[in-house]
Every structure is written in structure tokens, then in C-alpha cells.
UniProtKB/TrEMBL annotation:
Catalysed reaction equations from the record: NAD(+) + (deoxyribonucleotide)n-3'-hydroxyl + 5'-phospho-(deoxyribonucleotide)m = (deoxyribonucleotide)n+m + AMP + beta-nicotinamide D-nucleotide
A cellular component annotation (GO) from this entry: cytosol
Enzyme class: ligase
GO molecular function, one term: DNA binding
Record's function text: DNA ligase that catalyzes the formation of phosphodiester linkages between 5'-phosphoryl and 3'-hydroxyl groups in double-stranded DNA using NAD as a coenzyme and as the energy source for the reaction. It is essential for DNA replication and repair of damaged DNA.
Source organism (scientific name): Candidatus Contendobacter odensis Run_B_J11
Organismal lineage: Bacteria, Pseudomonadati, Pseudomonadota, Gammaproteobacteria, Candidatus Competibacteraceae
Highest taxon of source: Bacteria
GO annotation, biological process: DNA repair; DNA replication
EC number: 6.5.1.2
Protein name according to UniProt: DNA ligase
Family named by the database record: Belongs to the NAD-dependent DNA ligase family. LigA subfamily.
Length: 678
């Protein structure tokens, strides 16, 4: 059935609407309709085009990924050559001053004449392309090539959503738009995340992503590496009233529906250039795409013509770079560092290289999987990246430069700091030193945890004090805390005799504890409060826990293979055994479990949530007592909660309880429950 004129009208209307929404969504970042509504319009257009092939058009928004894979790219001769620009190597203000001085000389301006107006733009870090529109339709897209001859990449460029297939408004007969195809940081990260999951190679940087995507012969694959585009100039133009300044040209291109970066401005003289360079350098890392500098252009086009070209570079424009964020250097060694939680991180020791404004000698390799995936070896030449304040990292290896004797990395079996065993639990990417309390790298964190309120509850042992104690080598492990000398303490910063006495008293008080608190305080991986309590109940004594094998440990309720393995490894470590013995000798003790807990657990299986303030006992005390009777005390209310205990000024948990019909107890009700259960 031939399409009626109504239908032609509808198809044209849908294309206009979709093009308009695409522009708002991709170019202006200001969508006007919900995605679902957009999808509906798109599907309607697809259906009409499928039913009436005679209505199809290459400029339809449905046709972005229409092309078939190519055998090779067709060469394209640029009617107006695509030139490059001179780069100022001085990354400081000197670069701007030199350019302005040269322009003024070339224009024959005297010292008294007014400052030159410049258009300041970003220097996008992608690939230059030229888009040719004839009567508003995108007819060809080409790479720069050698500037004279490029390659026809129309099919791939059609997949770039921000590139309009049709211009809007009063369109020129011929308009060649020059600009940069690039990959945004977000698209780069997304693409790499997908590749990692699939175990496929990742892109080294967004620029390589853009190059790879443009040079992809199959447009279907190019579409999977999404690119963006910014227009920054013109090639051949016919039948258009061209504006008279560069700034106005870009405004006009934006009005035709082309994406133009908003990060641009017109400034006066060298001072204006320097201010722009500085402002953009500060913003650089926060931009959603990468730039490697800024570009200054004499704003008046008649002056641009007057200035003309020197060999292959215009005299009216210059690129003023920022310090590079990536450099090549050689890996001299791969060592490991031990983090606060015992995580072992491989670090590349590098031949010093100036990158991102500083000399870098180390770069993180994250973990053993990353080293293997990137296949970084000692002796390799690598790309090192340092962006902003981010820790420098190795982004990839230059395989062509690999020496025959390059050495692969092997994760050490023992901790380089304390020589304890290094383990890497199955399914985890991070290897850890199990030295725990003994490993100096982990000491501060371990001490903080040991002293914390729900562990040994050592009042007054704050972070700053822990730092001092470790840094001055006064405390190596928790047992040393109980050997601290009041006089030595009083000498520390922000201490004094009174606080020293108080701390010693607090340490003394903390010696009377419970087995569960003690187990929790040891900071064994995977062992939280609930597990510590379960262990206390199941084993009754510390000795029993310490000698238990993995099977025995797993018989504890809620202790699975991972927790059991962590416990077993911890107690096998002689250093840990030693610290525990010293703590007990120092007087740390707890009531025997058998005496404190009867076998019966009257509240076993009951789940409670506490909210608001209690008067007779603190929330922590209530929690301890309830847990001792077998109850689970949770932080949030669900259908599985048996009781919500509401004290004074209860929070939203009470509302939630009412909503779900969970039983609510007041403080008296809680006390009665505790009494009746003992
Ligand atoms: S203008 C005749 N403006 O930098 C002048 N180039 O050598 C033509 N670039 O690879 C270039 N951002 O793709 C101009 N705002 C910008 C630019 C820019 C990036 C790239 C361009 C080329 C190189 C210039």
C-alpha cells in the first residue's frame, strides 16, 4: 500500500519531534519529555518506516546505525585543508604572552592600540573530523588524515548521537563543520566496566577510545563505543551569511543545532588569555570530558584572513597546553604496600617522570588482578597517569618496548612489613596480610577499634592519641596499652598529668569485660559483634575458640566457611597468640561464660529493634542483655521484627512498626520481658 500524504506528514512530524528531542537531550542536556514518551515516538516512526519503505530516508533519526561493515575506508580530499595549530610549549603564562605579542607584531599594532580580542576555547582531546552538510543534510564525515586527504567515516559518525543528521533553521547550501570527536569520561568508564566484566581488553584512555571507534569498519561496533562531538570551526561554506567573528560563528553553529561547548569566552589581550587558561586549568578535572589545554583564536575573521598561515599553521590561533597527565616511563620494580586494613596493594616503582605537574616515582597497580589484566612487568615501558589529586596509576603497557627479560609480578606469600601470612580469599580481588594486631601498617586502625565503645570501651583513647602512641613507638599492639606509663603519657601533646591519670584509670576499668567484647575487640576480619557473641555462647572459653579447627568453628550458629577460615588463620598466627597472652597477663578478664549464661536462651529467635531513649538502662546495655538472652537486636524494622522497643522521643522506626503491625513495647514492657526471661 502506498503511503498517503497524511502518513508522509506524520512521518515528517515524528522525525522533527525526535530530532528536536535528540537535540535537547544530547546537545542541550535539557530533555523535555520522559524517556518512555521518546521511545513511543521512536517506535511509531520505526513502525511506519518498516511498513512504508518508500518513506525511508538516510537522515531519519532511526537510521543512525544503518550501515553495513566496510572493507576499507574511502579516501576523501578536503576542499579546504584541515590544518593543525601551533602549540605553545610553555605551559605557564609565558605561552599566552608570547602569542599575543606575535599577533600584535604581525598585525602591525602599536603599543598604544587597544588590546586584541581573542576567542578562547577548550582544546578537546579527541580526533579532528569534518562534517559536510548540503542543504542541511549530513552527507559526509571525514577524518583529518594528513590534512589534505582524510578517510570517509560517515557511517561511524552517524552513530554519534549529538551530531545532527539534519540542521535546523535557515541552512546554508554547503557547510563544512570542523570539530572534535571525543569519548566522554562517563562513556569511557562504562565501556571499560563492561569490558572488564566480560574479561575483554579495556581502553587505555578516552582518546584511544575515540580513535578506535572512528576507525571501526563495522558501524554497529562503533555505536557500542559511544562518542560525542564539539564543533569549533568551519571548512568549505557556500550560500551562508558568515558571521564576522569566531565567537559569532560558534553561536551560529549552535543555532543550527550543532553541539558547541559552553566553556568558551571572548577576552581582551594577554591578561584575558592568562585568566582563561588559569580558570580552565582549575576546572579541568571536573569537566565531563578530557582536554589537554586551551585554544586562543584572534576573534575577528578579517584579521584572521590578514594574518594568514605560516607553513601549515594559522598565525591567528595557538594551542596553550596544560601539563600532560600521561607520560611514558619504565617500571623499575613492583613492590607491595600494606594498607590500614591489611589490604596488600602492588605498587610500581618508576623511573622518575614529570606528569600532571609533579615528579612521579610510584604508581598504584590496585590489586593482583589488575596487574595480571594489564600484564605489567618489571622492565616494561608504561603509560603513567596523574590527573588532579588522584593517586598516579599505570594505565597500560607499551608492548612494543617490552624487553625480553621483563619480569612478571608474583604476590608475596608473606607480608613485607610483618612477615605474617598473606591470604587472598576466593572470589576476592584483594590479598591481605593476616598479621592484624601485630602488623605496624594496620596498628593504628586496630588500636582504634580495640579501644572503641562497643569493644574494650577505653574512654579518652582518641584518634589523635593513637596516632601519637604508634608514631612514637610507644604502642605496637593492644597489649602495650596496658603497659603504658603515666609519666610518659603526660608528656604527649595535648595530654598533661590529669588526662594521663584519667586514661590509666580508663584502661584499668576496661580490663573487666566479656569474652564477646574481647573477641570483637581483637579486630579479626569478618568477626563483628554478633559473631563474637555467638562464639562466646558456643565455646564458652577463649581457649576453646583458639584451639578449634575450621570444622569446629563452623558449628557455631551463623559462622560459615569464610568466617571460620578468618578465625582459624588469626589464632594460628603466633604473634596474635602472644598479644592475647600478654593481654590476659595484664589483667584483662571476663566472667566465665558458663556462669553468666545458662543454656537456655529464652529469647532465641526473637528479633527486636530499639528506638528512642531509655531511662533505666542505656540502649547499649539493653542490647547486651537482650543478646545474652538469645535475642537478635537489629537496626531497622521489617516484617520479621517481633518487637519494637520505643523509649522517649522515638524515631521513624516506631512509625514503621505501626505501619507493619509490629508489636511495640515501652520501657516498662522491655524490663518485664527481660525479667521474665531470666
Ligand atoms: S582549531 C586551523 N579549536 O587540536 C585551526 N582545534 O592542531 C584548526 N583541537 O587535532 C584547529 N580543540 O582537532 C581548534 N577548540 C579547538 C580545538 C582544536 C581541539 C584539536 C584539533 C587538532 C588540534 C589542532
Amino acid at each position: 500500500m502506498a503511503a498517503s500524504s497524511d502518513m508522509q506528514f506524520r512521518v515528517a512530524g515524528l522525525r522533527d519531534q525526535i530530532n528536536g528531542h535528540n537535540h535537547r537531550y544530547y546537545v542541550l542536556d535539557d530533555p523535555a519529555i520522559p524517556d518512555a514518551e521518546y521511545d513511543r515516538l521512536f517506535q511509531e516512526l520505526q513502525a511506519l518506516e518498516a511498513a512504508h519503505p518508500e518513506l525511508c530516508s538516510v537522515s531519519s533519526p532511526t537510521q543512525r546505525v544503518g550501515g553495513k561493515p566496510l572493507d576499507a575506508f574511502t579516501p576523501v580530499r578536503h576542499r579546504v585543508p584541515m590544518l593543525s595549530i601551533h602549540t605553545e610549549t610553555d605551559t605557564g603564562p609565558g605561552g599566552a604572552l608570547a602569542f599575543d605579542a606575535q599577533v600584535r607584531r604581525d598585525l602591525g599594532l602599536s603599543e598604544e592600540s587597544a588590546p586584541v580580542e581573542y576567542a578562547c576555547e577548550l582544546k578537546f582531546d579527541g580526533l579532528a573530523i569534518s562534517l559536510r552538510y548540503e542543504n542541511g543534510m549530513l552527507v559526509q564525515a571525514a577524518t583529518r588524515g594528513d590534512g589534505e586527504m582524510g578517510e570517509d567515516v560517515t557511517q561511524n559518525v552517524r552513530t554519534i548521537q549529538v551530531v545532527p543528521l539534519r540542521l535546523q533553521g535557515a541552512v546554508p547550501e554547503v557547510l563544512e563543520v570542523r570539530g572534535e570527536a571525543y569519548m566522554s569520561r562517563a562513556d569511557f568508564e562504562r565501556y571499560n566496566a563492561r569490558q572488564r566484566v566480560a574479561g575483554r581488553p579495556t581502553l587505555v584512555n578516552p582518546r584511544n577510545g575515540a580513535a578506535g571507534s572512528l576507525r571501526q569498519l563495522d558501524p554497529g561496533l562503533a555505536a557500542k563505543r559511544p562518542l560525542s562531538f564539539f564543533a569549533y570551526g568551519l571548512g568549505e561554506v557556500q550560500g551562508w551569511e558568515c558571521p564576522v567573528t569566531q565567537s559569532a560563528v560558534l553561536d551560529a553553529l549552535a543555532a543550527l543545532g550543532l553541539p558547541v561547548s559552553g566553556e568558551r569566552t571572548a577576552v581582551q589581550g594577554a591578561a584575558g588569555l592568562i585568566a582563561f587558561h588559569r580558570a580552565i586549568a582549575e576546572k579541568r578535572d571536573a569537566l565531563p570530558f578530557e582536554i589537554d589545554g586551551v585554544v586562543y583564536k584572534v576573534n575577528r575573521l578579517d584579521w584572521q584572513r590578514q594574518l594568514g598561515f605560516r607553513t601549515r599553521e594559522p598565525r591567528w590561533a595557538v594551542a596553550h597546553k596544560f601539563p600532560a597527565q600521561e607520560q611514558l616511563t619504565v617500571v623499575e620494580a613492583i613492590e607491595v604496600q600494606v594498607g590500614r586494613t591489611g589490604a596488600i596493594t602492588p605498587v610500581a616503582r618508576l623511573k622518575p617522570v614529570f606528569v600532571g605537574g609533579v615528579t612521579v616515582t610510584n604508581a598504584t597497580l590496585h590489586n593482583a588482578d589488575e596487574v595480571a589484566r594489564k600484564d605489567v612487568r618489571v622492565g616494561d615501558t608504561v603509560i603513567v597517569r596523574r590527573a588532579g589529586d588522584v593517586i598516579p596509576e599505570v594505565v597500560g603497557v607499551v608492548l612494543d618496548r617490552r624487553p625480553a627479560d621483563a619480569q612478571s609480578f608474583v604476590m608475596p606469600e608473606s607480608c613485607p612489613v610483618c612477615e605474617s601470612q598473606v591470604i587472598r580469599p576466593e572470589g576476592e580481588s584483594v590479598a591481605r596480610c593476616i598479621g592484624g594486631l601485630y602488623c605496624p601498617a594496620q596498628r593504628k586502625e586496630a588500636l582504634r577499634h580495640f579501644a572503641s565503645r562497643r569493644a574494650m570501651d577505653i574512654e579518652g583513647l582518641g584518634d589523635k592519641l593513637v596516632d601519637q602512641l604508634v608514631e612514637r613507638n610507644l604502642v605496637h599492639n593492644p597489649a602495650d596499652l596496658y603497659a603504658l606509663d603515666e609519666l610518659a603519657l603526660a608528656e604527649l601533646e595535648r595530654m598533661g598529668a590529669k588526662s594521663a591519670t584519667k586514661l590509666i584509670e580508663a584502661l584499668d576499668r576496661s580490663k573487666t569485660t566479656t569474652l564477646a567484647r574481647f573477641l570483637y575487640a581483637l579486630g579479626i576480619r569478618e568477626v563483628g559483634e554478633a559473631t563474637a557473641l555467638a562464639l562466646e555462647r558456643h565455646f564458652g572459653t577463649l581457649d576453646a575458640v583458639m584451639v578449634a579447627n575450621v570444622d569446629r568453628l563452623q558449628q557455631t550458629p551463623d559462622v560459615g566457611p569464610v568466617v571460620a577460615a578468618a578465625l582459624h588463620a588469626f589464632f594460628q598466627e603466633p604473634h596474635n597468640q602472644d598479644v592475647i597472652a600478654r593481654l590476659q597477663r595484664a589483667g584483662v578478664h571476663w566472667p566465665e561464660a558458663a556462669a553468666k549464661f545458662s543454656d537456655k536462651q529464652p529469647l532465641a529467635g526473637k528479633a527486636l529493634v530499639l528506638t528512642g531513649t531509655l531511662d533505666a538502662l542505656s540502649r547499649d546495655e539493653a542490647t547486651d542483655q537482650l543478646r545474652a538472652l538469645g535475642a537478635k537486636v537489629a537496626g531497622s524494622v521489617s516484617k520479621k521484627t517481633d518487637y519494637v522497643v520505643a523509649g522517649r522521643d522515638p524515631g521513624s522506626k516506631l512509625d514503621k512498626a505501626r505501619e507493619l503491625g509490629v508489636k511495640v513495647l515501652d520501657e516498662a514492657g522491655l524490663l518485664a520481658l527481660l525479667d521474665n526471661s531470666r
